[in-house]
Structure formats: structure tokens, C-alpha cells
Design brief:
Blueprint: E1 2-8, H1 12-23, E2 30-37, H2 43-50, E3 55-59, H3 64-78, E4 83-86, E5 91-92, H4 97-107, E6 112-119, E7 125-127, E8 130-133, E9 138-141, H5 142-145, E10 154-156, E11 165-168, H6 169-175, H7 188-198, E12 203-213, H8 219-225, H9 229-237, H10 245-255, H11 261-278
Parallel strand pairs: 1-2, 1-4, 2-3, 6-12
Antiparallel strand pairs: 4-11, 5-12, 6-7, 8-9, 10-12
Helix pairs in contact: 10-11
Amino acid sequence: MLYLVIPVFNRRAYTRACLLSLREQTCPEFRVIVVDDGSTDGTAQMLTDEFGEVEVVTGDGSLFWTAGVNAGIRRALVHGATRLLTLNNDVLVPPDFVEKMLLWANRRPEAVLGALELDAATGQPIYGGERVNWRTNTSQYLLEELPQTRRHGLHPVTYLPGRGLLIPLSVIESIGLFDEQRLPHYMADYDYTSGARQHGFPVYCNYDAVLSTYPEESGQQQTRRHRSLRGYYQHLFGIRGGGNLRNFTHFALKNCPPRYMPYYLLNGYARRLVGYFLH
């Protein structure tokens, strides 16, 4: 059985829209677990009143993304889940999303799968996976190289985001859960999928399954939109900071090949120190 795990903290309207889109799926062979990490905007009551089919795991506000996802996965495993799919609440999925993910999951049962990401406002593709060159700390973005005629099926990538990530049970049995101790919020998804690939599990972006997101509403974008010294500090050191230096260091030490480590770290630090002001 496929279990969808959705960590949430406030943003009730996004959660409602996401869950309503899941109700429209052509393939009903899944169950949903929402991890509500202490929302204060009425999310808990909405889930009770409007989504009785959804199982809710409650946190106290200290879980953040990684521990929230892990809590949902643990609950799903108790129920006998054979596949897990992590999904952010600020995501909309078309009716065939689960069907298209399971189609390829059945064909490649050991693979970790992501989805092609569209901008909810424009419908245009904005992320379709990447392949990292560890030596130069650069990425080859698939959307920039794939012509329209090849934007279908599976394409191998280095890692994947967690906002539409299908994980077979065999991966969890092999490498465990997400690293909530060292990567409590950002980069835990990239770290996990990169680690799965290093352990021999293929990692693909599934171009036949699409989801829509709101890129301007991400925490990183909002922090950069209102630049300040406090925001800069949060960017570099806060748990939700997209440029968190400690998180980047942990990710690099776990995933970058040792021979490329010195340059990868120095280049990554420089990008984070100045990137806040450039984007």
C-alpha cells in the first residue's frame, strides 16, 4: 500500500487545496497521513471537519520538515506501508498523479522517483531534476537540455526534492529514515536521495507525473524578498535558512567524493555568503 506523508505547519488554505486535489485521483490505492506540527491557524479543526479520511499525526511545533516526515513515515510503516510518498502541503496534483507515479514504480520497484514540477501560476515547467558535477559544484538541469520530444518517462538524476518523492520500502529498510539530527529542515531530501543512489538504488525524475508548486511562496524566497541583517543571519544559521552553512557542511561531508571536497566546500560557502544579496 502506498502512503502519502504531508508535513504541515499553518498555511491551512494550501493544505486544503492539496488534499482536495488528492481526492480527485484516478487511482485511489493510497492513504494519506498529515503531520500537523502544532499549527495555530485552525488546520487541526479543518482536518477533523473536512478530511475524515486523512490520518493526523500531531506535533508540538518542534519537528520541522525532516522530523515531521519521519514521524509520518513511522506511522505508515506501522500500518504496513510498502511505498511512501512525501508531499509538501503547498502542492497541487492533477488527477493522474498517483497513477503515473505507481505506473513507473511498478516497472522499477527499486527506484526512487520524483515528479516534473510546474509553476502553479503559469503552468510552465520549472524543475525536472539535475545532475551534479561534484568537482566543479555545478548542476546540469535537465529542463535546459531535454527537448520537448524527450520530456517523458524516467530520467536519472543526482538527487530529488521531497515535495513529491516516492520511496520504496526497500530503500527505508536499507538506509533508514531522513537525517533529522543533522539536517532538520533544508537539504534532508537531497541528502536522502543522494544517499539512496550511493547505496545502489536508481533515482529518477518521472516526467510522466507532474505537480504544481508556488515557488514564490518558499521560505527562501520570502527571506530574500525582505533583505535585512537579521534575514541574512537566518539565511546562514537559522533552521529554515536556505543557505545554512552547517547544513551544507553536513550534506557535503556525506555526499561529495573526498577528492573534490575542499573546492566543493569553499565554493559552496562563498555562494551562500554572497548569494543572499544576489538573488
